[in-house]
Amino acid sequence: MGALCGCQSSGAKSDDQAPLLGTAEKGEAGGESSLPVDATTKSAIIGGITWLGASALQSTWSTSSTTVMIPSAFGALGYVGGPIVLLLNMGLKLWVELAVVDLVLRHPEQKFRRLGDVGEYLGGPLFGSILTALQLLNNGFFMPCALTFAAHSLRDVMKPYGSSCNLYWSAIVCVVAFIVLQLYRNFSHSSAIAFVTCIFCVVQVACIDGIATATEAKDGPEVMTGFLQLDVYTYQSIAPFSSPSFAGGLWTEDFSNWIGAFGTLTYGFVPCFVTVEIMSEMKHPEHMKFALYTASTFMAIIYLTVGLVPLMYWGANLDTEITDMLPDNSVGKLAAFSLLLATLVDFLIASVAVNNQFRATFAPASWPTNVSDDFSRSGYWHWAVLTVPVMLLTLAFTVLIPHLNSLIGILSAFAIPAAQMIVPSWLLLTSSKNTQSNSMMAKLLFVLAILLGLGCVFFIMIGTVYSIVTASYKGNFFCSLAGN
Q1: Residue 478 neighbours by CB distance under 10 Å
Q2: What is the pTM of this model?
Q3: DSSP 8-state symbol, 481
Q4: From the CA atom positions of the chain, what is the Rg in Å?
Q5: Fewer CB within 10 Å of terminal CB in the chain, N or C?
Q6: What are the structural domain ranges in the chain?
Q7: For residues 390 and 404, what is the distance between their CA atoms, to the nearest angstrom?
Q8: Fold of 47-481
Q9: Which residues fall within 8 angstroms of residue 175, CB to CB, at 6 or more apart?
Q10: For 412, which DSSP code?
Q11: 49 forms bridges with which residues in the sheet?
Q12: Integer Cα distance of 455 and 288 in angstroms
């Protein structure tokens, strides 16, 4: 980990980290900025991302892969408990993220480009390295998750053609993603296709909810052949609040699933890993707050809609991935195709962040600093060389780590709580460089975010270890266990 973040201080701005925030007071055409000269949040960026593009990027960031897991999470927590946990989790994370945005806007002279820059400014090189490492850990583990979801979706779309082996479909998606990544190299390039992803997220949810309303299950064992991909489905009644059973001991599979539901909801909203990066490419970074509000509202509506409708019609006995229950017909394939495109964009966004950090850390000093915008033959060569190691590592993680839940558990239990809640809240609460006076309510919210983050680390990590230890490892490793 130290090798990844110690070669170059996250706060030291090299040439490849060209200052974008607060370095001039000119607009895109060289005229004066549209902001008042004495505005606290001067924007001097000559970028292309609008607030709408930033909102689309935030909306697609992990949303598409989370939608398929939300129904089972609501089933484990209850049709009232699930939404309450979701909204409280999103609200507290959003509040912390808005505080980070405030800090970035109050100090344009710092030229923040990455989350690690914020950590170094508030807490010194150690915290800069910690946040940089957490960001790399999250994005590095999220990419195999997105690749796995995309591979599953491609397999479902192509049925009955092609192999059933996970490695086969993962390799195809990885090759396609590598080719696309040669054209879309930064967030400005990716923001346009993020709008398409938002549309497909809506289509995906509409397909899932439409199928659910057309196939209401009944109490007791119910034969569902001819529509759902189930031979026999045992209906489990829903409750407003669900709690685990401890009949078999303190730590049971039921309790593990209950903890896993919290992990899913934690995994579903993580704006911290791309916010500062997107701001550095925005035309008006001060619009990021509105973009976050818009993205959060969109995500909440998507999650509540896709979580509650299947629960009401099919009961609480839902697969971890709701797409595994969809029919092998045109509607089911449309839902799978929507998930495929949406997760590919998620994968692309994470790849951009990892590639740029990889370049800043390992690229030789002789390499051009504008490689992400250089579409000459030399530029393609340099970018491909940067992309290959990241792609190979992603494919290796996908095919060597059994069970997708173990990857998501690591993210939910460590990287996300630490980077989204614990470390930023601690720094904003204690650092003397945070000149914003914190009210008593603000201090209480920071403390609550820290405690909630620590609780996630403890309980979700134990749940992850339990699921890894008790999981079945029978079958072909590369075809049925890895990437599943």
Answers
A1: 16
A2: 0.80
A3: I
A4: 22
A5: N
A6: 47-481
A7: 19
A8: Amino acid/polyamine transporter I (1.20.1740)
A9: none
A10: I
A11: 282
A12: 29
